Amino acid sequence: MGRDRAQPEITELVLDHHREIYAYAYRLCGSIADAEDLTQTVFLTAHEKLEQLQDPEKARGWLYAILRSHFLKLCRKKRPVPAASIEMNLDEIAGPVSAPCEIGREELQNALAALPDTHRLVLVMFYFEQCTYQEIAERLGTPMGTVMSRLARAKARLRADLSRASRDRPISPHPMER
Amino acid sequence: MDEHPDWTTEQREMLELLRSKNDVEIDAALAPIAEALEKDPELAQRLEHILAWDSRLSEAVRDVAVPPGLAEQIIQSVEAHSARPMPRADRPCSSRRRRLAWASVFVGAGAAVLLIAIAVMGSVPKMDPGELRSIARDRFVESRDNNLPGPTAVAVPSGFPYSPDLKPMPGVRSYPVADFREARAVAYDIPLGGNGTATLYVVRCRSHSLPQRPPRTPQMRTLDLAIAAWQGDDVVYVLVTEGGEPAYRFLLRSFSGTLA
Lengths: 178, 260
What we know:
Chain A is mainly α. Chain A is 67% helix and 0% strand. Chain A folds into two domains: 75 residues, RNA polymerase sigma factor, region 2, helix turn helix motif (Rna Polymerase Sigma Factor, Chain: A); 86 residues, Winged helix-like DNA-binding domain superfamily/Winged helix DNA-binding domain (Arc Repressor Mutant, subunit A, Orthogonal Bundle). The longest helix of chain A has 27 residues. Among the domains of chain B are: 52 residues, no CATH class; 127 residues, no CATH class.
């Protein structure tokens, strides 16, 4: 497939999918600049390997796979986080579960950023991509039990952090009182 | 801590993994929670809250403001790159950085060995069997989930032998564990082929009510781990195995089967 033919296709891919690829990248990376870089890298790779996309109906999943691959490369280059600084023991973090609170965009991003990379990726695949456990295990090449264990801990930790952030949130005055 | 200390770690994990109440009928691995949900209304209410959180979080994670002009920026970038080779997304690190990284590994490993050697001279703490298993599980999960590299070519202090009750396996790596509460410990990482990994913690401590040999069935289980502790000569062994009971039994010398 020549470049001249591929060019309009990549443009179409960008226009159709850049929003969700950016949103996915932002939830994984946690910063606007990193998410923009990662989104751009995804489409540059897609452009180079466009002939691999046999079925245009599967473009979204293909782009997600490219994104995950680049994100995991970035994670491997990072210094490992000392395990002791991250409480991921389910018995310790699984406190009482109340009805969900209002979730602020920044609070959600902070809570996601506090998770280890491996847990955050599994969580975003679960909530964002709506993957099944088997799909997550297959796409990451990780045993299913490990996926389930990571997901259970990540969910409990995320809820605990969001509940705490909600309790600590200053109460804004009623509009009539301003 | 939870308001219900009687709920097991396995029950908490399963509850987190249900996508709906019907999952217990669909997924055999989650079936054991069905009975607990029938009997315990508080557990059922906890599930309802978890599902409500899941629904709200699924919406919230997709709610991201996209910077204006991003599509145009990407298209321009693609056009600019289409005439020349694609840049590598990940450049290899410089040889100086690599040398520094290796130096840090060796200095760190040396310090760990020295600390262990000094500490071995100290007193031997007493530890509860449940505490031993929980610490081993936490160390294993932390190491696995954070992809912490196990040190290689590190001298292990004497007095922490591999258990004679376990099969000798190829590719086993051993290294001192810096943080096992007050006890000195050495870990043996045991690869299980394509079936995950296991770690044997050899802990210098005193304990009670432990069997003299590895038990036939593990004393503690989570969704993906099987954990057992037993008494050796002067040390306690704690084995954490990925892949549950089949992988655990496979490692026992008394078990002659193969790992599927």
